[in-house]
Amino acid sequence: MKQHNAWNPRWRLLACVAPAAAFFAAFWLLPVVRLLTLPADKGWATYFAVLTDARYLQSMANTVVLSVAVTLATLVLGAAVGIYLARHAFVGKRMLLSLLTLPLSFPGVIIGFFVILLGGRQGVVADLSDSLFGQRITFAYGLVGLFLAYLYFSLPRAIATYTAAADR
Known about the structure:
Elements: H1 9-42, H2 45-52, H3 54-87, H4 93-100, H5 108-119, H6 124-133, H7 143-166
Helix pairs in contact: 3-7, 5-7
Protein backbone atom coordinates (compact mmCIF):
# COMPACT_ATOMS: atom_id res chain seq x y z
CA MET A 1 0.00 0.00 0.00
CA LYS A 2 1.41 3.37 -1.04
CA GLN A 3 1.47 6.05 1.64
CA HIS A 4 0.49 9.61 0.53
CA ASN A 5 2.89 12.31 1.75
CA ALA A 6 1.08 15.62 2.28
CA TRP A 7 4.32 17.56 1.83
CA ASN A 8 5.41 16.24 -1.51
CA PRO A 9 7.20 18.73 -3.79
CA ARG A 10 4.01 19.75 -5.57
CA TRP A 11 2.29 20.77 -2.28
CA ARG A 12 5.42 22.58 -1.06
CA LEU A 13 5.56 24.56 -4.27
CA LEU A 14 1.88 25.43 -3.95
CA ALA A 15 2.40 26.52 -0.32
CA CYS A 16 5.27 28.79 -1.36
CA VAL A 17 3.47 30.28 -4.38
CA ALA A 18 0.11 30.87 -2.66
CA PRO A 19 1.14 33.98 -0.63
CA ALA A 20 2.79 35.57 -3.67
CA ALA A 21 -0.24 34.79 -5.82
CA ALA A 22 -2.59 36.28 -3.22
CA PHE A 23 -0.46 39.44 -2.98
CA PHE A 24 -0.32 39.72 -6.78
CA ALA A 25 -4.09 39.32 -7.07
CA ALA A 26 -4.88 41.81 -4.31
CA PHE A 27 -2.44 44.56 -5.21
CA TRP A 28 -2.04 44.26 -8.98
CA LEU A 29 -4.71 42.15 -10.60
CA LEU A 30 -7.76 43.63 -8.86
CA PRO A 31 -6.71 47.28 -9.45
CA VAL A 32 -5.98 46.56 -13.12
CA VAL A 33 -9.34 44.83 -13.58
CA ARG A 34 -11.04 47.81 -11.91
CA LEU A 35 -9.14 50.19 -14.18
CA LEU A 36 -10.20 48.26 -17.27
CA THR A 37 -13.84 48.27 -16.20
CA LEU A 38 -13.98 52.06 -15.77
CA PRO A 39 -15.06 52.71 -19.37
CA ALA A 40 -18.04 50.43 -18.84
CA ASP A 41 -19.29 52.86 -16.18
CA LYS A 42 -18.37 56.23 -17.64
CA GLY A 43 -17.39 55.58 -21.23
CA TRP A 44 -14.04 55.87 -22.99
CA ALA A 45 -13.83 59.52 -21.97
CA THR A 46 -12.35 58.27 -18.71
CA TYR A 47 -9.18 57.20 -20.52
CA PHE A 48 -9.02 60.16 -22.87
CA ALA A 49 -9.26 62.60 -19.96
CA VAL A 50 -5.70 61.71 -19.05
CA LEU A 51 -4.50 62.70 -22.51
CA THR A 52 -6.51 65.90 -22.81
CA ASP A 53 -6.90 67.40 -19.34
CA ALA A 54 -4.29 70.09 -18.58
CA ARG A 55 -3.83 68.97 -14.98
CA TYR A 56 -2.96 65.41 -16.00
CA LEU A 57 -0.62 66.61 -18.73
CA GLN A 58 1.12 69.03 -16.34
CA SER A 59 1.50 66.26 -13.77
CA MET A 60 2.97 63.93 -16.38
CA ALA A 61 5.36 66.63 -17.62
CA ASN A 62 6.48 67.40 -14.04
CA THR A 63 7.09 63.70 -13.43
CA VAL A 64 9.20 63.30 -16.57
CA VAL A 65 11.23 66.47 -15.92
CA LEU A 66 11.77 65.49 -12.28
CA SER A 67 12.90 61.98 -13.15
CA VAL A 68 15.31 63.18 -15.85
CA ALA A 69 16.75 65.89 -13.57
CA VAL A 70 17.25 63.49 -10.67
CA THR A 71 18.80 60.88 -12.94
CA LEU A 72 21.25 63.36 -14.49
CA ALA A 73 22.20 64.88 -11.13
CA THR A 74 22.66 61.43 -9.62
CA LEU A 75 24.85 60.27 -12.49
CA VAL A 76 27.03 63.39 -12.50
CA LEU A 77 27.44 63.73 -8.72
CA GLY A 78 27.67 59.97 -8.14
CA ALA A 79 30.33 59.59 -10.82
CA ALA A 80 32.41 62.50 -9.55
CA VAL A 81 32.33 61.38 -5.92
CA GLY A 82 32.54 57.64 -6.60
CA ILE A 83 35.47 57.84 -9.02
CA TYR A 84 37.32 60.26 -6.74
CA LEU A 85 36.87 57.96 -3.76
CA ALA A 86 38.01 54.94 -5.78
CA ARG A 87 41.15 56.59 -7.13
CA HIS A 88 42.43 58.58 -4.14
CA ALA A 89 43.66 57.41 -0.77
CA PHE A 90 43.30 59.73 2.21
CA VAL A 91 42.74 59.60 5.93
CA GLY A 92 39.07 59.04 6.76
CA LYS A 93 38.16 57.68 3.33
CA ARG A 94 36.28 54.69 4.75
CA MET A 95 34.43 56.89 7.22
CA LEU A 96 33.43 59.30 4.43
CA LEU A 97 32.24 56.43 2.22
CA SER A 98 30.24 55.06 5.14
CA LEU A 99 28.60 58.43 5.74
CA LEU A 100 27.85 58.95 2.05
CA THR A 101 26.21 55.53 1.74
CA LEU A 102 24.33 55.72 5.07
CA PRO A 103 21.02 56.60 3.37
CA LEU A 104 21.03 53.08 1.88
CA SER A 105 19.84 51.89 5.28
CA PHE A 106 16.80 54.21 5.30
CA PRO A 107 13.49 53.40 3.63
CA GLY A 108 12.03 56.03 1.31
CA VAL A 109 9.41 57.07 3.87
CA ILE A 110 12.12 58.05 6.36
CA ILE A 111 13.94 60.07 3.71
CA GLY A 112 10.69 61.90 2.92
CA PHE A 113 10.28 62.60 6.63
CA PHE A 114 13.85 63.97 6.76
CA VAL A 115 13.09 66.35 3.90
CA ILE A 116 9.96 67.56 5.70
CA LEU A 117 11.97 68.09 8.90
CA LEU A 118 14.55 70.03 6.94
CA GLY A 119 12.43 72.04 4.50
CA GLY A 120 8.87 71.89 5.84
CA ARG A 121 6.83 74.68 7.40
CA GLN A 122 8.30 73.98 10.84
CA GLY A 123 11.65 72.76 9.48
CA VAL A 124 15.20 73.86 10.13
CA VAL A 125 15.46 75.90 6.91
CA ALA A 126 12.19 77.74 7.65
CA ASP A 127 13.29 78.62 11.18
CA LEU A 128 16.77 79.69 10.05
CA SER A 129 15.50 81.78 7.12
CA ASP A 130 12.93 83.42 9.39
CA SER A 131 15.68 84.38 11.84
CA LEU A 132 18.03 85.67 9.14
CA PHE A 133 15.68 87.24 6.57
CA GLY A 134 12.32 87.54 8.30
CA GLN A 135 10.71 85.18 5.78
CA ARG A 136 10.09 81.45 6.16
CA ILE A 137 11.50 79.47 3.21
CA THR A 138 9.93 76.06 2.63
CA PHE A 139 10.65 73.60 -0.14
CA ALA A 140 9.55 70.19 1.16
CA TYR A 141 6.12 70.16 -0.43
CA GLY A 142 6.97 70.98 -4.04
CA LEU A 143 9.18 69.82 -6.87
CA VAL A 144 12.35 71.06 -5.13
CA GLY A 145 11.56 68.89 -2.10
CA LEU A 146 10.84 65.89 -4.32
CA PHE A 147 14.06 66.49 -6.25
CA LEU A 148 16.14 66.64 -3.06
CA ALA A 149 14.43 63.59 -1.56
CA TYR A 150 14.95 61.48 -4.69
CA LEU A 151 18.52 62.70 -5.03
CA TYR A 152 19.25 61.87 -1.39
CA PHE A 153 17.68 58.44 -1.92
CA SER A 154 19.49 57.57 -5.16
CA LEU A 155 22.88 59.25 -4.76
CA PRO A 156 24.33 56.69 -2.29
CA ARG A 157 23.52 53.87 -4.73
CA ALA A 158 25.33 55.67 -7.53
CA ILE A 159 28.32 56.50 -5.34
CA ALA A 160 28.64 52.89 -4.18
CA THR A 161 28.32 51.59 -7.74
CA TYR A 162 30.83 54.02 -9.25
CA THR A 163 33.28 53.46 -6.39
CA ALA A 164 33.13 49.69 -6.87
CA ALA A 165 33.41 49.95 -10.66
CA ALA A 166 36.31 52.43 -10.65
CA ASP A 167 38.29 50.70 -7.89
CA ARG A 168 41.64 49.65 -9.22
